[in-house]
């Protein structure tokens, strides 16, 4: 049967009288069109049911891949600098150890006060008092403050302060008060708050 005759049959077909049960006697072109429509419907249905979730999963994996690549590059950069970081850590630990050695222990505080007294005597200063205050515990160290008052001339007091600052143990000086003596002499009276520090070990209670 020619294509022209088949097209004429389609034009003359009464679509309202079509019965799916009689599909076997429909024009072959109509059967072909119905088969194509059915195939397309099945194809798009399978694509929506199977390919859709797979596509979403693929997009998720691609995003995850990009994040993993960024993490890898970041870790690779850190690994490349690992040797330098280790050297810096060793240097910091050495410096920390040196600083800890400059902090007196609780048992060494009396000898530190003796050193300060000797510095005052060497500079011919009169010591009114060296009075310990209650220690204050911080996160990593214990702060041990004490009040100090000496009397003498200006230059000897200045030399005494320089000697205290150069002690092998850390001593910080605060709240200076320098006033002339009331007896009319050239001597001055120095009052100050000094602080020394001791390292608090982990087993010590804060």
TrEMBL record:
Signal sequence annotation: none
Classification via InterPro entries: PilO, Transl_elong_EF1B/ribsomal_bS6
A Pfam family per the record: PilO
Assigned keywords, A-Z: Coiled coil, Membrane, Transmembrane, Transmembrane helix
Coiled coil feature spans: 55-102
Keyword Transmembrane helix in record: yes
Transmembrane segments: 28-50
Name of this protein: Type 4a pilus biogenesis protein PilO
């Amino acid at each position: 049967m020619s294509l022209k005759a088949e097209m004429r049959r389609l034009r003359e077909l009464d679509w309202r009288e079509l019965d799916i049960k009689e599909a076997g006697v429909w024009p072959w072109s109509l059967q072909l069109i119905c088969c194509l429509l059915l195939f397309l419907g099945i194809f798009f249905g399978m694509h929506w049911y199977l390919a859709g979730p797979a596509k979403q999963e693929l997009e998720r994996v691609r995003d995850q891949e990009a994040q993993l690549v960024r993490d890898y590059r970041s870790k690779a950069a850190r690994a490349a600098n690992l040797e330098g970081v280790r050297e810096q850590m060793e240097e910091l630990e050495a410096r920390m150890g040196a600083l800890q050695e400059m902090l007196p222990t609780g048992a060494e505080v009396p000898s530190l006060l003796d050193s300060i007294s000797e510095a005052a005597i060497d500079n011919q200063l009169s010591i009114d008092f060296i009075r310990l205050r209650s220690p204050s515990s911080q996160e990593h160290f214990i702060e041990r403050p004490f009040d100090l008052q000496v009397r003498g001339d200006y230059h000897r007091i200045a030399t005494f302060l320089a000697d205290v600052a150069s002690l092998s143990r850390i001593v910080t000086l605060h709240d200076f008060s320098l006033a002339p003596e009331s007896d009319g002499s050239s001597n001055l009276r120095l009052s100050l708050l000094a602080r020394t520090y001791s390292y608090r070990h982990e087993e010590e209670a804060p």
